[in-house]
C-alpha cells in the first residue's frame, strides 16, 4: 500500500484527541490513524502535548493522606487490558468489530452501488459504501460534514484521487460526484453528521425506502 496522500485535517485531529468528535467521525479518524504512519505520529504528538499540559498542573499542593493514597493505588496491580481488536481482511482493527464476521450486510442503493449501515445515532451515521469499478455514486450534496475513507480500490472526484487509506472531508458546500477507479470495486467507510441529501431525482425518490 502506498502511503496515504489525503490526511485528517489538523482541527479534526485536535478535536479527536480532546474527545470532542461525534462518534462516527471518531471511528473514521481512528481507522485512518491505524493505516497512516504520518497521522499516527501526529496523533502521538498531540497526546504528548496533552500530557505536558497535565504535567504543568502537577505543582498543586498534595496532602500527605492523598499522597499515601496515590502511592497505594500505584502498588495495586493494573487492571487487565482487554485484548486489542485485530484487523480482518480490508477492515483495520478499529473497524473489524463493527463488521459482521461473515461480511457486511449490503443493501442496494441503485446503479450497482450498495451500502451497509454500521452505526446510526443522533450524532450521525457510519456506513460502508460499495461502488462497482468505473461507476459513479449518485450525485449528492449533504447538510453537514461527510468524511470518507477508502478501504479498497479508489475513487476520484472534484477533490482529487483517493486511494486506500485516503480521507476526503466534504462539507455542505461541496457537490461532488465520486467515480470509482476501473481496477476494482471501491469500498469506503463514510461518516456523516446529517442525513445525505441526494440531488438526482431517482435516488431522492428511493431515499425513504433505503433510509440513506
Ligand atoms: Zn494520514
TrEMBL record:
Membrane-traversing stretches = none
Pfam families reported in the protein's UniProt record: Cupin_7
Read off the InterPro entries from this record: Anti-sigma_ChrR, Anti_sigma_zinc_sf, ChrR-like_cupin_dom, RmlC-like_jellyroll, RmlC_Cupin_sf
Q: Which domain of life is it from?
A: Bacteria
Residue span(s) of domain ChrR-like cupin: 105-191
* NCBIfam families, A to Z: anti_sig_ChrR (TIGR02451)
The identity of this protein, by name, is Anti-ECFsigma factor, ChrR
Amino acid at each position: 500500500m502506498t502511503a496515504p496522500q489525503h490526511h485528517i485535517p489538523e482541527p479534526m485531529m485536535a478535536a479527536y484527541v480532546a474527545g470532542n468528535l461525534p462518534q462516527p467521525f471518531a471511528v473514521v479518524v481512528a481507522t485512518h490513524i491505524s493505516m497512516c504512519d504520518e497521522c499516527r505520529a501526529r496523533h502521538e504528538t498531540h497526546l504528548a502535548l496533552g500530557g505536558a499540559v497535565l504535567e504543568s498542573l502537577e505543582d498543586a499542593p498534595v496532602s500527605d493522606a492523598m499522597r499515601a493514597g496515590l502511592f497505594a493505588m500505584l502498588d495495586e496491580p493494573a487492571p487487565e487490558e482487554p485484548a486489542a481488536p485485530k484487523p480482518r481482511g480490508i477492515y483495520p482493527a478499529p473497524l473489524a468489530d463493527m463488521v459482521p464476521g461473515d461480511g457486511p450486510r449490503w443493501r442496494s442503493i441503485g446503479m450497482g452501488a450498495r451500502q451497509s449501515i454500521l452505526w446510526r445515532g443522533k450524532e450521525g451515521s457510519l456506513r460502508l459504501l460499495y461502488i462497482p469499478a468505473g461507476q459513479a455514486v449518485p450525485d449528492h450534496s449533504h447538510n453537514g460534514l461527510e468524511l470518507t475513507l477508502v478501504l479498497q480500490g479508489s475513487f476520484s472526484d472534484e477533490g482529487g484521487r483517493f486511494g486506500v487509506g485516503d480521507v476526503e472531508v466534504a462539507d455542505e458546500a461541496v457537490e461532488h460526484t465520486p467515480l470509482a477507479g476501473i481496477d476494482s470495486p471501491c469500498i469506503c467507510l463514510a461518516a456523516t453528521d446529517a442525513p445525505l441529501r441526494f440531488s438526482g431525482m431517482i435516488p431522492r425518490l428511493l431515499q425513504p425506502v433505503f433510509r440513506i
